């Protein structure tokens, strides 16, 4: 398990035109057209757009899988992996937006961008910057509920998220049942403004309603970070000691830090832990009996298809505004992984990389996003 130790050691967009448009009762695509007037490329006008992925950090196994999917898509076009431009925001929304603006300037808007905006409020300025330059963008995970692709014509191509409440409730239920329906748990969540962090906490809360004899001792944001999770879990063990009979983690990388803290106290495998993301290390930990369950969101497909949607819209292969709303805001697939099916999952998704038709934009998706 040395990889866990290694893991641990290892200008704002001017919105004046939008505000003016709102003052005159103009919203959505009309407002977008004011900002991008004279700049937007017609669908199909970009012959060979730059393809970019903006994300948090490739040292994170989840994001590595996302970007690997993006690279697979780029290779399907007969291009080398190096043709994919990487915009690494390091968890900073300010850097995310600045990097996007810089690339928009460098490419003069001839850009197909796939992005997780890092937090929900940052999605709007990113989209507005892209639209103003006539580039094309597809987002994943984080956006506010009032931001919709169809309000920006074709340039905001799509948004994909994952419906995390149900799967998180499933993993939490597995945890609480493993505890015999009684005892006390601690929780570690993601960045507070992230949609998945909010939904996964809701899933835990839903599960707890069915187990009145289980107490939630504390729940803290570890910001998806292994080292921060390790520190928080160590403090939990100091504060609560033997009271802790289970741990809920909102993603796998935080679970790695939790397990390292438990190992330091000789408690690994004795206190059940659940997580989320379905990373290779997490699946190995399930097989080893140190992790109870996780959930895969098929990040390889998600990363590839998000880039594909932006690219094919930019080149005019399809017109996003001709598509129904469920093709512009949709959920990605989820797979619950426990010890009963971890070996099968490992063979199919980890030991081998499934091949995908990157023009089958919505095949594995799981229906429209509902609010």
From TrEMBL:
It is found in: Cell envelope. It comes from the Bacteria. It holds the Pfam family Peripla_BP_4. InterPro entries: Peripla_BP_I, SBP_2_dom, TAT_signal. The keyword DNA repair does not apply. Keywords: Signal. The keyword Ribosomal protein does not apply. Residues 51-316 form the Periplasmic binding protein domain. Belongs to the bacterial solute-binding protein 2 family. This is Sugar ABC transporter substrate-binding protein.
């Amino acid at each position: 398990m040395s990889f866990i130790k290694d893991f641990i050691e290892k200008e704002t967009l001017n919105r004046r035109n939008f505000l003016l448009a709102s003052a005159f009762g103009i919203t959505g695509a009309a407002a977008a057209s004011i900002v991008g007037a004279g700049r937007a490329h017609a669908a199909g006008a970009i012959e060979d757009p730059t393809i970019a992925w903006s994300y948090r950090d490739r040292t994170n196994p989840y994001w590595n899988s996302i970007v690997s999917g993006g690279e697979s898509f780029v290779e399907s076009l007969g291009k080398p992996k190096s043709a994919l431009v990487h915009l690494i925001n390091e968890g900073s929304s300010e850097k995310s937006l600045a990097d996007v603006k810089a690339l928009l300037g460098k490419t003069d808007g001839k850009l197909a961008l796939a992005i997780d905006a890092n937090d929900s409020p940052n999605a709007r300025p990113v989209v507005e910057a892209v639209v103003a330059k006539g580039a094309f963008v597809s987002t994943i995970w984080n956006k506010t509920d009032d931001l919709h692709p169809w309000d920006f014509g074709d340039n905001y191509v799509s948004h994909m998220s994952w419906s995390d409440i149900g799967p998180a409730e499933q993993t939490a239920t597995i945890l609480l049942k493993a505890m015999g329906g009684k005892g006390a748990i601690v929780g570690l969540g993601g960045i507070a403004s992230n949609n998945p962090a909010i939904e996964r906490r809701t899933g835990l809360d839903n599960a707890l309603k069915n187990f009145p004899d289980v107490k939630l001792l504390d729940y803290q944001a570890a910001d998806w970070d292994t080292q921060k999770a390790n520190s928080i879990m160590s403090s939990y063990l100091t504060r609560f000691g033997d009271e802790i009979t289970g741990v809920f983690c909102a993603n796998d990388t935080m679970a790695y830090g939790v397990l390292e803290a438990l190992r330091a106290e000789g408690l690994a495998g004795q206190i059940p832990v659940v997580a989320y993301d379905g990373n290779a290390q997490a699946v190995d930990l399930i097989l080893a009996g140190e992790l109870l369950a996780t959930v895969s969101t098929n990040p390889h497909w998600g990363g590839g298809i998000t880039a594909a949607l932006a690219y094919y819209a930019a080149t005019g292969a399809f017109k996003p505004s001709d598509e129904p709303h469920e093709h512009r805001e949709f959920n990605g697939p989820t797979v619950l992984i426990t010890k009963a099916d971890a070996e099968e999952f490992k063979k199919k998704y980890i030991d081998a990389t499934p091949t995908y038709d990157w023009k089958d934009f919505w095949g594995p998706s799981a229906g429209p996003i509902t609010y």
